[in-house]
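Predict the 3D structure for this chain.
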Amino acid sequence: MVAFLNNSVNRGLLAGALLFPVFADAAEPMFEMLEPSVTERLSPDRLPLSFYTFEPEDYWATPVDSWWLDFSNWVIRQERTHGQSVQALGAWADRTLSGAPRALPDNESYLRLRFETESRYDNLLDYDADVRFRLDVPTAEEKLRLIIDSESEDQIPLEERERDRQLTKADRADTEAVGALRYISDFGDAINFSTDVGGRLRLPPEMFWRSEAGKSWRVGSGWGLKVEQRVYYYHTEGWGARSWFGVDRSLGNGWHFFSSSEMEWVHRDRKFQLGQIFNVRKRLNNRSVVQPRAGVLGESKPSWRATSYFADVTWRYRLYEDWLFAELVPALWFPRSESFKDQGSVVFRLEMYFAGTIDRD
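Done. Predicted structure below.
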């Protein structure tokens, strides 16, 4: 009986240790655990949450052949094959640029595929697909990074960035791939600073420069604060600047509150673009997250005014391991161009990642 209780307690602690990184925002553990025995280290409870795609009672169930199982296995094989190719490309670029015999472990290169359907008031069903590639590898002792991105965030209007989850590819602005070398440094203990020098990957190429600084800290009563400032310059489009301020706080019962304020100066338009977003987030279990949001967007020209209001709810579900996700996003948008008349939409999206170590939640 004592042995049974000891095993139960140990399994509870082990399960808690596995679930903690999924539900908590902090990366540091809140307690230390004793070294588990060999039996415990090899038990199913010690495997990562992404290992199993079925419920515990189905561990030893006999698989049933079906067309869906064959299709699922084909998708998994694609990730195994192409994911390794993307990872190998990033590792090769890292070794080549740094001159080191081995690549550093934080290779954040990835290929993302999206399959999206959208239903709106004026269009019952629309289908689209989107591909994004990012090569982001560390070199020179992690102070210098090579970045090749299929889209540049500086080319995306603020309103589109804030409403990205509501939009499909047809609603997004066309951007161009960019390549840059990023130098990363720290000022003091908390200010992170980076500078990019590169160009748009087109003929003829266009050079650009951008710098970004950020600082985050925790204050009393559980509040977190973060500030970011970015300045950029493109040879043909001129310069711009962006200021971002965010706060967050745990609300209890798994809910977390976020608020962000952003102001961007676009020199070619000679005006400010503004955004204020409020959202809460709750992880329902180890597979799904729900995130309601509400926001207002504005501009300074011809006068300081609101350009649109919006509200949406994102339900994101992890279908398989840590690279296959589904999203359902019902949304309402009230643009000034339509006299603030409501524009409703529902987006369903499948998202697949190949390789990389980025946070995809």
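The domain at 67-354 is CATH 2.40.160 (Porin).
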